[in-house]
Amino acid sequence: MTADLSPHALRTTAPVLDRAARLFAEHGSRGMAMSDLTRRLAAEPGTDAACLRRAFPTRFDLSYAVVLRATRERVNGQLAADVPARAPTERMSDLVHRHVSSGWRHRTAIALSQGLLPALRAIHPARHREVSSLHWTFREHVHEIISAGVAADQFRIRDAGRATDTVLETFDSLLHWYDPGAGLSIDDLGGVYVDLVIHHHLRGPR
Known about the structure:
Helix content is 73%, strand content 0%. By secondary structure, it is mostly helical.
């Protein structure tokens, strides 16, 4: 049996998936038996254990649901918040701030996806396509902003495609070093990444 992972189902199970992400963060993706995960998740108000087992019969189903929901939220949020009429530098600055904030909020799902996607490619191509298509949509969105900036002489790079890949790799790096206890707030971190992306990678004038 496979989980019902329609947008409606993901919205209605959002508290359960939030709890699952917290448990994965605390114990690792394989640190708890599925029976223990189900028991802990069923403690969420309004959650029925039998329904939970039908929706997410395996740890793989649960991990996929956490990753898919986080990816949809991040990508759809970026597309909805963008204002194409604004200057490319402003669009990119806002996108970077949003990406840093949502990336930290969904850091567990992002870490899960790094191990999940290769498995999905091998054993469940349809699910892999669903997640990877969201990543591709976001890449195309970033590429469009960069191309607009090049056309407006705000980003002075030669290869918009290569610059897009570099920017996306830079986004991924924050999970490997950021420590909120070290005194740098998420807002400040966003400013650091805006400067790195716009002025270093995209060679926007200061």
